């Protein structure tokens, strides 16, 4: 907490985000957050998925603007209207997914958009190469700057990205978002040495990571966000991993809990056995995943971003068919070819990104609801409009979708009602297994309550449901049983009184940290 910080160091704040509020439609992402960045230190920002870390960093990088609050750099108020404004003020950001041109050289990538010119037309390649070589040598990594970026390892690409930001003559603060998520142990060691070199130059680092042991090793200060609020901050030397976890988890307001069935006697409707999925670089996204789902059961899947949760649902749904292992439906092996076949087999999925993957924004509300079930309402290629309308109306009423007219554009609805439309679209396909990926993301509390009630009622009707969620409270509230993923592996299975916040968080870090 503030009172635990050394007074001398507390006065060494180079960047202050004061009383920051950020409101998006239907949700308050940040609520009166004050965040301090100390000069020449590694300032770690920690929180569960959805805690507000990325939103705060986007504000500091000029990508988003706060609804309320002020930013101060070296005790002077600044206003960041764009990433260019942030760079002019000496703030750079390295995103989790590095953007570069793989077929261009290191030198060309480093100077993209800020080329050195001989005159108003020609690029001064000689000067660019000299500057690249100088910066990379200072960082201890003198690469061949004529090598193509696509030929470098992920760790080397990250070093080049850091060097690119050092081209800013006044770089003061560098934001690193999950910088080690794709690095080997050796590359992490190199990165940490590089961070220490940056600190020696007086550059401040804002470091975001789910890897708690890394945080304890590399950071000087820790700030914890939870549900859009700052709940704790301290010197790293004053805290431990248990302190971090307890502040991340907290004691949030409880949702009204459904009556769960921890001892479901029904048969297995879905069986996944030894499912593995590899990336293009041959690393595993999923490794030997085996799980079972009973009829009428709600199975929660919890884990950190990148743990493989979404990828599992995509394999089951036929979005990605390049996996190994087997899947049984009602005791019979099924060969998954595509999404359409899986819909016929009795599967349906509510995707994580409803705007991109769940809705057709050019269609109206009614057409979005019936989109996946048109074969039910057509014969010999002719659509039976009356039957389609009756089923659409039935779904609108049963899900309590609030609308003025079903012929209105889908974007006329609130986020919560858009989500109900996607659920309704899936239910019209009459699924046996419903896959829900972050079903309440970006919707308000009242809409969340409605979605929970819908999920509960569907389970009572015998539909089997898998729910992926980053919200601990949500998983605790609606799941009969919970499995936890970490680094593409199943690291825990919990039922009944075993399902606790602490148990789920600890299991989600297995393979990343030792929390014992």
TrEMBL record:
Domain of life: Bacteria
Cited CDD domains: ABC_Carb_Monos_I, ABC_Carb_Monos_II
An example Gene Ontology molecular-function term: ATP binding
Record key words, sorted: ATP-binding, Cell membrane, Membrane, Nucleotide-binding, Repeat, Sugar transport, Translocase, Transport
Keyword Repressor: no
Domain ABC transporter: 15-252, 264-512
Pfam family name, one: ABC_tran
Protein name: Erythritol transport system ATP-binding protein
